[in-house]
């Protein structure tokens, strides 16, 4: 494995870490409706649990309401029950074969709790990035120990990995700040 391979590997893994963090942030509910909030809801469909998006069409009716249109008529009650029993605190209501999921307004206390959750998720993401940096640096040290690279090359590569880590952590901080602003906006 060469220095370029180690850098490329670290960069791709840090990119995946950022993508995973973005997905995690989408699950955290703000005051506005977003169909992605229902991604973690699973419904029983012919004996197996499947994601809601595989049995219904999810869309927005307005800024605070998600509409769920089941593809099969008999799924309406199961979908409604699954949304109600999820830990999202949502109360769906059926109107014919359309299920409306209104988003309750967030209380000030709940907003503060959610910002703590966002910060915690950001810290977890930063720890993951730092672990990737550590792994890359260990691989560089192994190359140096095996005398496959010079000390100068190893030092430069470590500096590049550190710059990549700093950029990635700055991006995580930016995402955390944006999500906090989104949550605190009334």
From TrEMBL:
Which of UniProt's keywords are assigned here? Answer: Coiled coil, Cytoplasm, Protein biosynthesis
Gene Ontology annotations for the cellular component aspect, listed alphabetically: cytosol
Q: Where in the cell does this protein reside?
A: Cytoplasm
UniProt key word Plastid:
no
| Superkingdom field | Bacteria
Q: Which GO terms describe its biological process?
A: cytoplasmic translational termination
Q: Which GO terms describe its molecular function?
A: ribosomal large subunit binding
Location of the Ribosome recycling factor domain: 21-184
Coiled-coil spans are 126-153
Keyword Coiled coil tagged = yes
Tell me which family the UniProt entry assigns to this protein.
Answer: Belongs to the RRF family.
PANTHER family found in the cross-reference section: MITOCHONDRIAL RIBOSOME RECYCLING FACTOR PSEUDO 1, RIBOSOME RECYCLING FACTOR
Protein name as annotated: Ribosome-recycling factor
Species: Ideonella livida
Gene behind this chain? frr
